[in-house]
Design goal:
- The structure is a single chain.
- With about 350 residues, this protein is mainly β.
- It is built from two helices and 16 strands.
- The chain has a twelve-stranded antiparallel barrel with strand order 3-4-5-6-7-8-9-12-13-14-15-16. A two-stranded antiparallel sheet has the order 1-2.
- Strand 12 and strand 13 form a beta hairpin.
- It starts with about 30 loop residues before the first strand and ends with a strand.
């Protein structure tokens, strides 16, 4: 019976408190000096933290979308023969990857882990942690097609230096997905997702705080091709396109520095390409993967330009290093670390554990 690769690193961003008003007008340029409660601002419209807030929310939306998309795309590709072990077991048959024992066509999978995000971009500095707990179910409806659904909770804790504040919040995502095997090592997958986010945020050194809520949506499609290199080495090429939209509803703060916080949105359209190399050694499969990602649409400091000290870096490199252990023909567990580099003055990394049971 075929064993499958499992990669589950789910991030569902909920930094919705970040955008505290509409963007500055196209004539405004946001200058900052100092940081935190001692920062001073000029030319920032009616809201001195709007530019940094908008960019930060956009960065979290991007991290969320990229990680969720990578999670499910790698998971589905593994089911359809995208891991070294499943490819070897299936023999990379020309007629497609078999689902194995016809009586074992369903699976449950879970994961838990955390990611850290940080930025030192002037006027948009922040740092924090996203923890997650995930559960999913899928079924092979025939030997070429898999359908499934995942749900996960995301807990966020962030320090927002740009507005002398912090955040604690939660997001709940529902993401149905499907994959199809064209045969000869080529597969495709697609997914849509929707989330509800809520939490409590403070700023101005605790002199203003409020409760927020909002929603997130995403859609993605990915293509993969697998090659057997010999000596139990396997290479998988991946390309993908994903989009996301995030909206946070307006709310009223309380405290000595309280004001009304307007509704805010963020947008993303990102393309990605890269490869995964794995070695199928008995019941253990180590792997490494690398991707280049580019934002065709994203949110940055400023409305029609870039604020002094800001950043409009639209690309990054994503690296993953992991190990999957197939304890039995129907059970597998895995451990993975990931890191994102190449984005101007911004960093992200994570550690994930996962498990899968086929029945």
């Amino acid at each position: 019976m075929r064993k499958v690769f499992l990669l589950t690193t789910c991030v569902a961003g909920s930094l919705s408190w970040l955008s505290t008003a509409a963007w500055a007008t196209s004539e405004d340029t946001c200058y900052t000096s100092g940081s935190g409660a001692s920062a001073s601002y000029s030319g920032c419209g009616t809201n001195p933290t709007v530019s940094g807030a908008t960019q930060t929310q956009g960065e979290v939306t991007r991290t969320t979308t990229t990680t969720v998309t990578t999670t499910i795309a790698s998971h589905v590709s593994g089911i359809l023969g995208g891991s070294g072990r499943s490819s070897r077991t299936a023999g990379m048959m020309e007629t497609g990857v078999s689902a194995g024992d016809g009586s074992i066509n369903q699976a449950l999978w879970v994961s838990m882990g955390a990611n850290t995000l940080s930025s030192t971009v002037s006027g948009a500095a922040y740092s924090g942690t996203m923890s997650n707990q995930t559960a999913g179910y899928d079924v092979m409806v025939n030997e070429r097609t898999v359908v499934g659904v995942s749900v996960f909770r995301q807990g966020d804790t962030f320090q927002t230096d740009f507005n002398a504040g912090n955040l604690r919040g939660d997001s709940w995502w529902l993401v149905p997905y499907a994959g199809y095997d064209f045969g000869q090592g080529s597969t495709v997958d697609a997914m849509v997702g929707v989330a509800y986010a809520s939490g409590k945020a403070s700023r101005a050194a605790g002199n203003a705080e409020g409760h927020y809520d909002g929603y997130r949506t995403m859609v993605a499609v990915n293509g993969h091709h697998n090659w057997g290199l010999g000596n139990d080495l396997f290479l998988r090429g991946d390309v993908g396109l994903s989009g996301a939209y995030s909206r946070t509803n307006g709310y009223d703060e309380t405290g000595t520095a309280a004001r009304h916080v307007d509704a805010s949105t963020s947008h993303l359209l990102q393309g990605k390409a890269g490869a995964r190399l794995s070695y199928a050694w008995d019941r253990v499969e180590p792997y490494v993967s690398a991707y280049y990602a580019y934002d065709f649409v994203g949110d940055y400091v400023g409305d029609s330009g870039i604020a002094p000290g800001g950043s409009k870096d639209a690309d990054e490199f994503q690296f993953y290093l992991g190990l999957d252990w197939y304890a039995t023909d129907t059970e597998s567990v895995g451990l993975e670390i990931n890191r994102v580099v190449g984005r101007d003055r911004s960093e992200a990394m994570g550690l994930m554990m996962n498990g899968r049971l086929r029945f």
